[in-house]
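Quick log. Single chain, no ligands specified.
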Amino acid sequence: MINFYHYIDIVPFVLATLIIVVGAGRINLKQPLTMVIVLTTGLYMVAQSTWFSSWMSGNVWGRDFSNYIWFLFNTLTMVIFSWTLIRLGKQE
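-> predicted structure:
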């Protein structure tokens, strides 16, 4: 039987790659949210690849360190969501 749960991690990683490629061309000083999105997406890619590699190799220290990166990523994601909601509220 083939276990596909490892391949599921590829989908968001590919989407993150597309976000960085497209977002990098749109970064400017007038839209700081774009820069935050690209940086947060890059942080996601580091966290995901580091945690998965550490988990597969049994490296406990690397897995635990990656959890801190995940914490930072999750926090920045919530900042982006909050920022977007605040900006949408100002446009109404």
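The chain has a mean pLDDT of 80.
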